Amino acid sequence: MAILFGNLLVLALFISSGTTFFHDKNDDVLALDEIVREFHANDRFNGVVLLAKENTILYSGSYGMANFEWQIPQSTESRFRIASITKTYTATLILKLIEEGEISFDDVIIDHLPDYPHKSGHRITIEHLLVQSAGIPDYLSLPGFLEIDAYLSHDVNTFPECFKNLDLKFEPGSDWDYGNSEYYLLGLIIERVTGLSYQEAMQKYILDPAGLHQTGFVTPGAVISNYANGYIRNSNGIETAPAIHPSVCYSAGMMYSSAADLHKFVQKLYHDKSILSEEILDVMTTRHMADYGYGVFIGYQVIQGDRHTTYLHMGEIHGYTAQVSYFPDNGYTVIILDNTQQCASRLYFAIMDILPDFSPAETAADD
């Protein structure tokens, strides 16, 4: 199937659950809309879906409620917690500092956090932290953490006390284990190197230059415009999700964004290459262990019988799931944001089955 790029028709269709925008109303995007509506009707999705080809948004639809208590519908401008997709932003900022000569891949933890235990701090490099090969236990996996500590306020500077003295799971660089501890430390290194808070540094180096005005940080007491509250579905129906404290998430998962801003970030980073140089972007998107690059998964997906490269990250936190996929071979971006903690991958693969214009000519070359 192919998208027709002839006379473009812009259609805004207001529906009871939100708003759907078609850049080009054709059978392909209408089929996508039908799939998303079906997922929503079956209580398997509540949020926003965006499909774009390069800088052009082809489809953006919102479904369900941003606030169930007040029956406030979702909007394509709704802002969601993006959880671990924060790691892509953190990695981008670290790479920006490397690009500017402020730090290097070979720096070890104690070069910037001198109070970190020497037994591991002198062996773990910035690169180990970026690619999740440091061997540091994930604090979310510590006994009882998700039952009590996750909901308490913590000082980010002392928070690593809960994991930094634990034995490493393996020798740094010898294996891979996805977690949050490494990216928490990267946030503290950013603060030490820049002299700014993590939030201030991200605003200065990434968000403001890229014009990401619908992206920010979940902080206690903050009023966030167009914010989609987090919920969970269970046998009782919809319930408000318990809120993990932002200080627990920090540089591993404290950010929020809208679908439009996530698309803008993806385009400026991967397509326009206006955030990082092409040279360092190539390093960021080089596959390491478990198909992880620097803050992003670099993989291949078989779509409609052909194999395509994808840059992907997912995020999940109580009340929210998020998924951002970019296909560098043909410029597609697919973004799924949900505020009822539904499995985004189920909808994602349903969309992949009908996503148009994945022609064999644009298939990624084999290794």
Radius of gyration: 20 Å
Overall pLDDT: 90
Strands of the widest sheet, in order across it, are: 1-2-4-3-15-14-13-12
Secondary-structure class: alpha+beta
Question: What sequence of helices (H) and strands (E) makes up the elements?
Answer: EEHEEEEEHHHHHHEEEHEHHEEEEH
How many H/I helical runs?
11
User: DSSP strand (E) fraction?
Assistant: 15-25%
Largest sheet: 8 strands, antiparallel
The N- to C-terminal Cα distance equals 27 Å
Poorly predicted spans: 1-16, 359-367
Shape: globular
Percentage of residues assigned to helices: 25-40%
How many individual β-strands? Answer: 15
Structural summary, described in words:
44% of the residues are buried. Helix content is 29%, strand content 22%. Strand 14 and strand 15 form a beta hairpin. The chain is globular, with a radius of gyration of 20 Å. It has 367 residues and is an alpha+beta fold. The two termini are 27 Å apart. The longest helix is centred in the N-terminal third of the chain and has 15 residues, at 27-41. Strands 1-2-4-3-15-14-13-12 form an eight-stranded antiparallel beta sheet, with helices on both faces. It has a three-stranded antiparallel beta sheet with strand order 7-11-8. It contains eleven helices and 15 strands. Helix 2 (86-99) packs across helix 6 (181-194) and helix 2 (86-99) packs across helix 7 (198-210).
